[in-house]
Write a structure and sequence with these properties.
There is one protein chain. The protein is mostly helical. The radius of gyration is 21 Å and the shape is globular. α8 packs across α17 (about 375-400). Helix content is about 75%, strand content about 0%. It has one domain (about 1-400). It is a multi-pass membrane protein. InterPro entries: C_nuclsd_transpt (IPR008276), C_nuclsd_transpt_met_bac (IPR018270), CNT_C_dom (IPR011657), CNT_N_dom (IPR002668), Gate_dom (IPR011642). It comes from Thermocoleostomius sinensis A174.
Length: about 400
């Protein structure tokens, strides 16, 4: 029954995208169906075929073991008892380490070749342009403002549909550095990696429903990465990557302190208001979101008993960010508070930067590449965030169909 509901959810999410499309008559359904098909093929390979699951489980174990190497650096800097302060001294250092490693891969051109191969597959199947496909493929590994750097020369001349697809790809995926942090939380690595891969074609599929192509793209059928390497050698690459990771860590730490403090203050106000007006002092943002978004969780195939808690996670991810939502998921996992099925589906649904704050990040980040497109980015921001959210929900629904 839950698998059938997840199929229904997939159709509902596609239907929502179609309902709010800017030009329904121009939707290229071949691209959309291929995007969904690629998602489904990836999902079947990972979740249904033993060798596929074994490969991704192996990759997950390798990544987990690889991230444990950051413990050596953390132990030297913070001492043998560094894990007593798990988040600050265990989780955040993994971001710095992984960022340095990604920078090293970029310096040697390895990352570019992997991205180019994935982009080629999406161009040949979905029929999307080179620039939007490259950006979507890049989003599997790097963040929402870093991936567009792979297509920096093409952003100023990108069509509105391409610009929407570029933004949607950023909202539908997460950066490799924060993915490493979520693995440190105890969130299943195999499903985090799978979600990152599956959401790339999902982003293009949903984007082409909500903002179909009506112009001629200058990069149709072309795959070319034309970005200068910022590093001069391997040592420089590691240094720059570590510094980028440090900036990300400081941003995350500051954001968590501010958002969690404001959330506690807001919940205290809601509790007071609920007690005065409704004799419900337990009223909180989480409680409100659990009621509002439980049906969305149900449509992904989450067991109804867990829908309230997963709905609260979805709401926090959208209003605050996915980092806070994954922190809450970690607590649910440790307390065995929800079923394994709910944990896996939530892992897929939360794996994206689609939140209100990211709209400003993308407008500022991509706008820095092409200042003349700033107004277009602002015009597309909310719509692209909704598209990224729907892409994550599609990925979760497909996982729900196969679990």
């Amino acid at each position: 029954m839950e698998r059938f509901v997840a199929l229904l959810g997939l159709l509902v999410f596609v239907g929502i995208a179609y309902a709010i499309s800017v030009n329904r008559k121009m939707v290229a359904w071949k691209s959309v169906l291929w995007g969904i098909a690629l998602q489904f093929i990836f999902a079947v390979f990972i979740l249904r075929i033993p060798i596929g699951f074994s490969i991704f489980q192996f990759l997950g174990n390798v990544v987990t073991q690889f991230l444990n190497f950051s413990d050596e650096g953390a132990r030297f800097v913070f001492g043998d008892n560094f894990q007593e302060f798990f988040f600050a001294f265990k989780v955040l250092p993994t971001i710095i380490f992984f960022s340095a490693f990604i920078s090293l891969l970029y310096h040697y051109g390895i990352l570019q070749q992997v991205v180019k191969g994935i982009a080629w597959l999406m161009i040949r199947t979905l029929g999307t342009s080179g620039s939007e496909s490259l950006s979507a493929a890049g989003n599997i590994f790097v963040g929402q403002t870093e991936a567009p750097l792979l297509i920096k020369p093409y952003v100023p001349t990108a069509t509105m549909s391409e610009l929407h697809a570029i933004m949607t790809g950023g909202f539908a995926t997460v950066a490799g550095g924060v993915l490493a942090a979520y693995i440190s939380f105890g969130v299943p690595a195999v499903h985090l990696i799978a979600a990152s891969v599956m959401s790339a074609p999902a982003a293009l599929a949903i984007s082409k429903i909500m903002y179909p192509e009506t112009e001629e793209s200058p990069t149709r059928g072309a795959v070319k990465i034309d970005v200068d390497k910022p590093s001069i050698n391997a040592v420089d690459a590691v240094t720059l990557g570590a510094l980028d990771g440090l900036r990300l860590v400081l941003n995350i730490a500051a954001m968590l302190i501010a958002f969690l403090a404001l959330l506690a203050m807001f919940n205290a106000f809601l509790g007071w208001l609920g007690g005065v007006l409704f004799n419900q002092p337990e009223l909180s943002l989480e409680l409100i979101l659990s009621f509002l978004l439980a049906p969305i969780a149900w449509l992904m195939g989450v067991p109804w008993a867990d829908c309230g808690q997963v709905g609260a996670l979805l709401g926090k991810k959208t209003i605050l960010n996915e980092f806070i939502a994954y922190l809450d998921l970690q607590q649910l996992i440790e307390g065995n508070a929800i079923s394994e099925r709910a944990v896996i589906i939530a892992t897929y649904a939360l794996c994206g930067f689609a939140n209100i704050g990211s709209i400003g990040i993308q407008i500022g980040g991509i706008g820095g590449i092409a200042p003349e497109r700033q107004h277009d980015l602002a015009r597309l921001g909310v719509r692209a965030m909704i598209a990224g959210t729907l892409a994550c929900f599609m990925t979760a629904s497909i996982a729900g169909m196969l679990l």
